[in-house]
Each structure stands twice: as C-alpha cells, then as structure tokens.
Specification:
By secondary structure, this protein is an alpha+beta fold. It folds into two domains: 53 residues, no CATH class; 151 residues, no CATH class. It is 34% helix and 25% strand. Helix 1 packs across helix 2. The structure holds zinc ion. Zinc ion binds next to strand 2 and helix 1.
Length: 205
C-alpha cells in the first residue's frame, strides 16, 4: 500500500488520503480531482485523475482565477475553483511582491494577530469606544496551511493608536477577512463531511 500521493508524490497519512479506482491521492489533489468536492472519484482511473489535477497546474497566476469576492485590496476569493489570492499590497509592504494563491482545501486556520497582546473582544471594545490612546504595533491576519506553513495579510505595520481612523479602518478589514475565511473553511468542512460519508471505506482499509 502506497504511502505517497499517486499524483504529486506527497506523503499521505491514513486519514489524509482519498481512494480512487487505482489507489490513493492526497487531499490537495483530491480537491482538484473531485472539482472541489462536488464529484466522487471512486471510479476514476489514474489517467483521468491526472488530467483533472493538471487543469489548474498553473496555480501561481490569475489564469483560471475567477474573482467571486474580494475584501479591499487584501483578499480575493475564487469560490468557483475553491481558491484565494493574497494580492501584493504596495501601500503596506512598500515592496513589490508576487500575489500568493492558495487552494482553500490546503488552509487549516485563520486568525487575527496584533501586538501588544490582549483579548480580541477587548480590542474590539476599544475600537468601538474610539477613546483609547493605546498603540498597536502591527495588525495581521495569519493564514495557517495544513502543512504547517503560514502566510500573513498585513494591515498595519507601524504603530497606530487604537482610536485613530486608520487603525479602526484596518481593524474592520481584518475582521471581515477573518469572517470570510471562516465562512470558506466552514463550507469546506461541510463538503468534506458529506464526502466522507460516501467514502467511508477508504478509512477502513
Ligand atoms: Zn497529491
């Protein structure tokens, strides 16, 4: 029994693998082969699976990226293909960087990060009150991938007072990004759960 994905060669564990006619593939390839969990792959051959996975081979570009939603210049969503893009934001980073693309299937979690530390509800309250002289040093939305890598959407990268308009504006964007990511991740989990019922056998092998 193979311990690597038949398509991309990535190592796969017992629960991160998905059965097709000839063997197993990883979750990332499964997302592509099943057209974002909308089709079953049980009866598909390796050749068929490879074709489906190759459709989006050119992932680091806007080709095949259909913008179905966006939040400011911080996050682009392609729900049709189950992907997101973090565009390069020159206003913030002050350097040219390439946009980054991720399959939603490969994203594990999303959280708002800032310094100094306080509870998010506390920061929310201070933003709402518009009175705090306290300074926040940075504000980011951190995206953690299934493989442990992280990426960050930077909203504030210099000290700003909580009561300032610039900070309040950025904080609103951070919350909207977090909400949108939560929605996308929840949808995915729902899809997975439905799929898992149909694929029960793969876990029992
Ligand atoms: Zn794979």
């Amino acid at each position: 029994m193979g311990k690597t994905c038949d398509v991309c060669g990535k190592e796969i564990g017992l629960f991160g693998r998905f059965r097709y006619a000839d063997g197993y593939i990883c979750k990332t390839c499964y997302a592509k082969a099943s057209r974002q969990f909308t089709e079953t792959i049980r009866s598909k051959s390796l050749a068929e699976i490879k074709v489906l996975c190759a459709v989006k081979r050119d992932e680091a570009s806007f080709e095949n990226f259909k913008v179905t939603g966006k939040i400011g210049n911080y996050l682009l969503v392609d729900e049709k293909h189950g992907r997101i893009c973090i565009p390069c934001n020159r206003m913030i980073s002050q350097q040219v960087s390439e946009p980054r693309f991720y399959d939603i299937a490969t994203i594990k979690a999303c959280r708002i990060a800032y310094q100094p530390y306080m509870e998010l509800t506390e920061l929310e309250q201070l933003v709402k009150e518009q009175r705090s002289e306290q300074t926040i040093h940075y504000l980011k939305v951190i995206i953690t991938l299934e493989d442990g890598r992280e990426d960050a959407i930077t909203l504030v990268n210099k000290p700003l007072r909580i009561k300032s308009y610039a900070f309040r504006q950025s904080f609103q964007f951070a919350e909207r990004i977090q909400q949108e990511m939560d929605r996308l991740l929840n949808n995915r989990q729902k899809d997975n759960a439905e799929q898992d019922e149909g694929e029960e056998e793969y876990a029992a092998v």
